[in-house]
Amino acid sequence: MKKKVLLYKAIPKQEYERLKARFDISFFDTVNDSNRSDFFTALKEAEGLIGSSLPMGPNVLDKALKLKAASTISVGTDQFDLAYLAERRIPLMHTPDVLNETTADTLFTLLMCTARRAVELSNMVREGRWTKSIGEQRYGTDVHGKTLGIIGMGRIGYALAKRGHFGFNMTIQYTNRSRNINAERDLNATYLSMEALLESSDFICVMTPLTPKTEHLIGEKEFSMMKKSAIFINGSRGKVINEKALINALSKRVIRAAGLDVYEVEPLPANSPLCTLDNAVLFPHIGSATTETRLKMVSCAVDNLIQALAGDVSKNCANGHLLKH
Ligand SMILES: NC(=O)c1ccc[n+]([C@@H]2O[C@H](COP(=O)([O-])OP(=O)(O)OC[C@H]3O[C@@H](n4cnc5c(N)ncnc54)[C@H](O)[C@@H]3O)[C@@H](O)[C@H]2O)c1
Ligand SMILES: O=C(O)[C@H](O)CO
């Protein structure tokens, strides 16, 4: 008999067929009031889970009594409680590496758009407000040759730093849980304390995962330490930043501008004060959102689930270090 798998995201047909060839699939594109009880019935029977963007904390997974493996179509694992899963001996598989370059492309786009006020000025053209030279007060600021400070120099942080170093002759500095020797060797990156990085960077990009230790890592105190001309970029998770403090820093011009791909609440409510700020560039969580990369992520997550349900968690297991204890 085929193992039961709960799929909670629409995926390309060829990847769906790969799953269907091996497993008995229950598919939920979304979970709402009309299908919630069917979702929980399927969850109760599922040995495998695959999907993304749904909170899967203990309150949900306590009902998944037969669960043997979960596979998230993302590198971020913050929808899950890794320790809880490890306690139940359930591996959580994720999709590192396949999205590094695309996400770094997005972050650099965000950085460039923010520095050069691209969205604001493009809107001026579209709305018929380009009636004369834009004027000094709307000039952007240079990116090339500036200092890029990266908080969280992991896989994506490194890919972003590569763009800054080789493409834009930027000075790279970073803070991280541990030294990134490759970044220091390849990109001449300098390891700094958080304080030193905040005080001396022209561009500051946050690329840590969201964990209990990184929640609200950047708040009022940190914004006040940045240069008045600093441009802040968040491509990690919204909750790594105290969004209220960021809004305050932007509206009072404590810093120059921010480029954001992620928010405390997603989708960002249209009445968020962020939407009224002309010094904020707002992307709708599109770090990895290209056709090619999203397909690679789904394919990787499908492979991960097949392998994990066969007992092999040697690759891409996010809580492997906890399962060992
Ligand atoms: N915006 C998007 O669409 C998008 C796309 C991909 C990933 N992400 C987010 O980016 C995160 C990072 O992805 P990655 O693949 O580079 O992960 P990674 O694990 O390779 O890198 C994260 C780095 O953060 C560091 N770190 C962790 N806690 C820290 C702390 N308290 N202080 C300083 N550094 C700390 C780690 O040491 C590591 O080097 C993901 O967890 C995800 O949340 C967002
Ligand atoms: O974590 C990730 O992979 C990205 O945020 C896309 O969901």
Automatic annotation (TrEMBL):
Source superkingdom: Bacteria
Q: Does the keyword NAD apply?
A: yes
Mind telling me which PROSITE patterns this protein's record contains?
D_2_HYDROXYACID_DH_1, D_2_HYDROXYACID_DH_3
Record bears the keyword NAD = yes
**GO MF terms held by the record:** oxidoreductase activity
Q: Which residues form a coiled coil?
A: none
Where does the D-isomer specific 2-hydroxyacid dehydrogenase catalytic domain lie? Answer: 5-319
Q: What UniProt keywords are attached to this protein's entry?
A: NAD, Oxidoreductase
Q: Where is the D-isomer specific 2-hydroxyacid dehydrogenase NAD-binding domain?
A: 109-287
Q: What is its EC number?
A: 1.1.1.-
Q: Which Gene3D superfamilies match?
A: NAD(P)-binding Rossmann-like Domain
InterPro entries attached to this UniProt entry:
D-isomer_2-hydroxyacid_DH (IPR050223), D-isomer_2_OHA_DH_cat_dom (IPR006139), D-isomer_DH_CS (IPR029753), D-isomer_DH_CS1 (IPR029752), D-isomer_DH_NAD-bd (IPR006140), NAD(P)-bd_dom_sf (IPR036291)
Family from the record: Belongs to the D-isomer specific 2-hydroxyacid dehydrogenase family.
Q: What is this protein called?
A: D-glycerate dehydrogenase
Q: Which organism is it from?
A: Marinomonas arenicola
